[in-house]
């Protein structure tokens, strides 16, 4: 028995030694697929070598192709007065040499726009075309047209242009209202730094950004898709290539993208565009009051409610003055809509049509009162110091 055990031990030792040598020098002799290993390429079916549908989600080429033809380049120029050499300010020099005529110079700018109608209407930012006396639009296919201004709305920084074309124009489609959510993937399309049409990708970082000091009326989509100078007026689209916003501004210390860009929601842009096309301008309500936020300290000191807007001033002969409102009143509701803060007053008043009668609920010296106001038309931005 002992001899048999000795023979078995020696045989096992030799077998293990041989196996060790083979696995070291010729591992392919003993390797074979396990349950977790993929079969050799020769055994894979043709169906397995075809990219899976899930990979298509990694590309946004279809969205870009749908939107790119509708995004245009805008080139502007205007005549400016050439600076005069300081020497010509010297009376002695002018006495002998006279005052030479100034040679006018032209400054140029660039931006982007979005074709929103097959009839040639283009949405862009007001600051892109402001003060320009010549506007040229270049389409995606290289065609160039002279454009005219249909109307502008400086308070939202939007403008509408139009070109006349004998060929069919590719118009972008608008996304469904309120379809944008934080975290959605978006593409920013424009002409950054004049290098040519460019697509950048990011997500919706936030919605309803306001109080940034960019425009009078602010309700921005914030995105980290790269937006640079020249992208202004371009399109922010979803993964279907539908318009969700008009790229407007960036937060930057250097002039380049820092991943904080702002776009005007497509719903707002569409509403402004339709008013401009129909009336040539945007009509908003106005009652002529200056308001300020009610801080906890102010509420405690003046015995004011926590919600509402404190009326700090009233314009002469304004609807508010004729309606009996006074400085120191707290506006808590207008036309049946609650006023929670000072920012809400601007939006609520602007949404009311001129000529309409609206009830204003106020608190004066602790008592709730009502006043009837006849809404007037909001003056031009240079004149509209009050809501």
CATH second-level architecture of the domain at 285-377: Roll
Mean pLDDT: 83
* Uncertain spans: 33-56
The strand count comes to 21
- Report the CATH C-level class of the domain at 285-377: Mainly Beta
Helical percentage: 10-25%
CATH homology-level superfamily of the domain at 285-377: PDZ domain
Radius of gyration: 34 Å
Strand content: 25-35%
User: In angstroms, what separates the terminal alpha carbons?
Assistant: 109 Å
What kind of sheet is the major sheet?
7 strands, antiparallel
* H/I helix tally: 9
- Elements, N to C (H/E): HHHEHEEHEEEEEEEEEEHEEHEHEEHEEE
Structure, described:
With 387 residues, the protein is of the alpha+beta class. Among the domains are: 185-265, Trypsin-like serine proteases (Thrombin, subunit H), CATH 2.40.10; 285-377, PDZ domain (Pdz3 Domain, Roll). It is 21% helix and 31% strand. It is built from nine helices and 21 strands. It has helices spanning 2-25, 46-49, 61-67, 91-97, 126-129, 266-279, 296-302, 319-322, 342-350; strands at 71-80, 105-115, 121-125, 134-138, 144-146, 148-153, 158-162, 185-190, 198-209, 220-223, 235-237, 243-250, 261-265, 285-286, 289-292, 309-314, 330-334, 337-338, 357-364, 367-374, 376-377. Strands 5-4-1-2-3-7-6 form a seven-stranded antiparallel beta sheet. The radius of gyration is 34 Å and the shape is extended. Mean pLDDT is 83; it is low at 33-56.
